[in-house]
Amino acid sequence: MEHIVIIGNGISGVTLARHIRKLSDKKITIVSAEADYFFSRTALMYVYMGHMKFEHTQPYENWFWKKNRIELKKGYVKQVETETKTLHFAEGDTLQYDKLIIATGSKPNKFGWPGQDLNGVMGMYHKQDLETLEAHAPNNDVCKRAVIVGGGLIGIELAEMLNSRSIPVTFLVREDSFWNGVLPQGESEMINRHIKNHHIDLRLSTNLKAINSDENGNVKSVIIEETGEELECNVVGLTAGVTPNIDFIKDSGIEIGRGVKVNRFLETNIPDVYAIGDCAEQHEAIGNRRPIEAVWYTGRMMGEVLAQTICGNKMEYKPGHWFNSAKFLDIEYQTYGWVFGKNGRPDYEQHFHWKHEDDTKCITVAYDKNTNQFLGINTFGIRMRHEVFDKWLTEKRDVDYVMKNLSEANFEPEFYSRFENEILQAYTNQLQTA
Question: For labeling, which of 26, 83, 262, 299 is most exposed (least CB within 10 Å)?
């Protein structure tokens, strides 16, 4: 019986295993060094905030795996030997495979800062990070201040977590406005104000120079690069992006760039070896997407597609229109299609931006100024329907059509009806002045 071995028990690896089981009787083993059972990574923050217990983050009961004949092996893969199809574990044992899937996800970036490995320094990605945070920041008596380095989505989640226990937070962001490599200016500036309104000490255009230790190897303070200022703190969160977690395959002959190089069928250069999720890197990016996508839903889609291929129905990975969602403290964010910040914004891309006077709701619509084709939308504090935008992007609707029918896409029509006229009026005014 063919043995499928999946390294990694995140959303990609688990989706793959479930779908292979639906389609076949192959032998399946999931290998993970992190946790005994699959859990929802995005829910870790809610455990710390007291909204749920860790076991509530596990979507499947513990009996699920045995019932579905999916073997779970806890262990750290030290080496992959592709000629003999053998995995070597740090514990000294080995495992043979017929087909191997690498789904090991990401790890937080570290940039060689002095003190980056002290006690109390963590990312916010793994179950172990949550345990470290609980140990070093159980309350504001033990943790007088936390410093977060890097202004992405994980950074804002960590800030919200610490905020929930009234632990003072200083947020060091390299850019001159929050996440402005991704967000257009108006949105980025609104988020700056929103963070400060939550009494978080946001410091833009600010870099970390070093992390200092006390006599016991714990975090004592950080030094700011630009000013030399020393800030006392007990916890440092490193949230300056993530990198594929692939150190263990460096000598395996599997081709790597930043991630494991794959084609559109998620195949590597070695027969019977595949990669999916955050650690997979497309040889050529798909449309405007990045070659590596550390996004929950693309990992799930890759798992579903690859299961078809492994079970004899070869299928290409086609992720469709870009979308994503997140939260900035209590403002929900959604994006559909492409709305570029200052990085990589093409010269034909025009924006219409509307912001509500309460400074917690806004939309930005991107369109092609030459053809008027709708390119994408960002919404903050207004929930939109995915399937409607997906359809409009496929139909290549023009921006006028989208603006006039925006209420169709709104998740809460009665909420939207209060702003509809205002948004349309602002849009019409912009067209006239343009």
Answer: 83
Rounded distance between C-alpha atoms, residue 21 and residue 242, angstroms: 31
Q: For residue 52, is pLDDT > 90?
A: yes
Q: Give all domains of the chain, ordered by start, each with its CATH number.
A: 3-107+243-311 (3.50.50.60), 121-240 (3.50.50.60), 323-432 (3.50.50.60)
**If residue 12 lies in a helix (H) or strand (E), which one and from where to where?**
helix 11-23
pTM assigned to the model: 0.93
Q: How large is the angle between the packed helices 296-310 and 11-23, nearest 10 degrees?
A: 30
pLDDT tens profile 12-38: 999 999 999 999 999 999 999 988 999
Would strands 374-380 and 331-337 be described as parallel, antiparallel, or unpaired? Answer: antiparallel
Contact (CB, 8 A) for 101 and 276: yes
Instruction: Give me the helices (H) in 171-329, please.
Output: 185-197, 296-310
Q: What is the 8-class DSSP label of residue 186?
A: H
Contacts of 313 (CB under 8 A, 6+ apart): none
| Calpha distance 37→283 (Å, rounded) | 32
Residue 28 in contact with residue 316, Cβ under 8 Å? no
SS3 288: coil
